[in-house]
């Protein structure tokens, strides 16, 4: 398999009134062609920061990248100018945000906004397209059909506020995939939806991603959601990757104490009425004061004296299974 995205030794720090904190600390992530990589972890662990770094949307000048590289198709995106990133963003790399209402322009119809993506795709292919082009409009209507919107001819004339949350998310999926990107980033795209709509959206994303052969970084705090869509899973805690493996391996043979604790905190179908849910003691560390050594050690039930001395490196202990722990 050929890698589409390679993040190597990436660190991101923020300068705030409360001090300097490390949002990402020497992150390594690789996503291969047509692969869905799930990225899971508690809120504030750095998942969204990684997506924003890849998209070149980190809030400057407060965010700085002291080290690392983000290689997309063999080129380091960190060396790109803003103008060069604009050529990549939304075309070669697209993104679905958590709340589509904040990403869609309320002053333009859905058709106007989706047509812009279609026009860019046609222009890159050497076409000459405007909104009045029958080819563009037909393609917009086609994408409305593909994401399951009823009466697509009417839908393209409506504004974002006229759609429900699930319908707006379908529009965002269409906009993200209509340009046929090589890489799509999905940042908690189902967290604001009810369970039934979540399942529909996940099935839709999986189907369309397969059709356009895009690679995906799917970000979520919900392991159950990731299990339905990902091929591989990376577990993040306090700005570092603590475990990475295939989705089956993560659920059947979790090795890092944090991954085990996350899975234990989910209800089991057979025992949901018989026992209380387990909890992870303590709380996520303040990123301005990350504890020395393994950042999870203050909450870890397997903690030994050495765990607070040096941070363990992410290492491969079996084919495709990596872990950052000295006591797996």
Structure write-up:
There is one protein chain. The chain has helices at residues 47-55, 82-88, 110-124, 134-146, 152-155, 165-178, 195-212, 223-227, 247-252, 257-264; strands at residues 3-16, 19-32, 36-40, 63-72, 75-76, 93-96, 183-187, 215-220, 232-237, 240-246, 315-318, 321-323. The chain starts with a strand and ends in a 5-residue tail after the last strand. It is built from ten helices and twelve strands. It has 328 residues and is α/β, with parallel strands linked by helices.
In short:
With 328 residues, the chain is an alpha/beta fold. It has helices spanning 47-55, 82-88, 110-124, 134-146, 152-155, 165-178, 195-212, 223-227, 247-252, 257-264; strands at 3-16, 19-32, 36-40, 63-72, 75-76, 93-96, 183-187, 215-220, 232-237, 240-246, 315-318, 321-323.
Defining key terms:
single chain, 328 residues, alpha/beta, Rossmann fold, 8-stranded mixed sheet, 30% helix, globular
Strand content: 15-25%
Provide the helix percentage: 25-40%
Secondary-structure-based class equals: alpha/beta
Note the gap between the termini.
28 Å
Low-confidence stretches: none
Arithmetic mean of pLDDT? 88
- In total, the number of strands is 12
- From the alpha-carbon coordinates, what is the Rg to the nearest angstrom? 21 Å
* Spatial shape: globular
Main sheet attributes: strand count, strand direction, barrel closure: 8 strands, mixed
